[in-house]
Amino acid sequence: MGLFDFFKRKQKEVIKSQYEKELPEWFTDEAYDQGDTVTNPFNGGVYKLTANELSMYDLIIGSKLLMKMTPDDFSSQALDEYNKALIWFKSTNSKAYFILFDTETNSLNINSLEQQSVLQGILNMNPENVVVKKVMKDTAKMNDTECDIYRGIDMSFHWFKKNNPTLEIICDEETMTQWYDFITWCYAQDGECMAEGNIEGLAEPDFDFEISPLMESAMGECDSWWCKYNVDHQQIAEEEGREKCEKCEGSGYLDEDFKIECEKCEASGYDPDDEEGHWIHYGNAFEKISNSVDTSSFKKLSGIKL
């Protein structure tokens, strides 16, 4: 297995799937012919991966180890591939992503590491000198859809700070946390237009203010990243919130060799009669995040100018 010889496994089994996602062109590591069952050593989670998923998994784990052991020799290209590998894996199999890359018990916290890699690669900064807000601090109470929404919120906040570099100079830690809350609320309103409309339309004391240029900047970032990630949010909501087909138990196939397709669900694995469940799940995730935000500081934020 080349660079990843340390991933020798006792058992191998072929995992076949007509709809297995192909590896991207930038992937130059060894592509396996067989899948395998992988265990997260930190939380005990187990998941059966296809051959391509296993190939990408080994790239991610190997990159994390190299990044930890020899950070000075880890190139910007390797950082870029690492981040692309995370995105590919999460979009391909979000359930396996959250099982195998546990964010609470893994000492190489994948979300913090991902954010630090982005900062290091884009800003050429030492991650140890960057304060990164830990988004999913209570993932035990979050579902996969909510966790993925916070991914967009976190990127919105990062670029809001990057595009307003003096903000952290004039704002203390508490105020920066309030800015994060504002971005969280705006993102949960489906981006800039809905956030602006809700601010202007809500007859509540917390929203008795005029939207400032800084707030417009924050809402603009929310809008951009919401547009970029919303398809991912919807896909994860479908995987998590839509009822599985009872006949094939959600696999899409009627046999263990993945040869006989389930006619009832047309090999999708979803209940054909459940067309709205995932949309309800999707909407509830945004509503829960929106309702979790303390909006009492928004009026104060509207008065901050650079």
* Multimerization state: single chain
> What do the pLDDT scores average to?
75
Largest β-sheet summary: 2 strands, antiparallel
Roughly how many Å is the radius of gyration? 21 Å
List the helices and strands and how they pair.
Blueprint: E1 36-39, E2 46-49, H1 51-69, H2 76-92, H3 94-100, H4 110-123, H5 144-163, H6 167-170, H7 173-188, H8 192-201, H9 213-241, H10 277-291, H11 298-301
Antiparallel strand pairs: 1-2
How would you describe this structure to a colleague?
It is a single chain. With 306 residues, this protein is mostly helical. It has 2 domains: 110 residues, no CATH class; 174 residues, no CATH class. A two-stranded antiparallel sheet has the order 1-2. Strand 1 and strand 2 form a beta hairpin. Helix 1 packs antiparallel against helix 2 and helix 5 crosses helix 7. The longest helix has 29 residues. It is flat, with a radius of gyration of 21 Å.
What are the main properties of this structure?
306 residues, two-stranded antiparallel sheet, disordered N terminus, single chain, mainly alpha
Short description:
The protein has 306 residues and is an all-alpha fold. It has 2 domains: 1-110, no CATH class; 133-306, no CATH class. Helix content is 51%, strand content 3%.
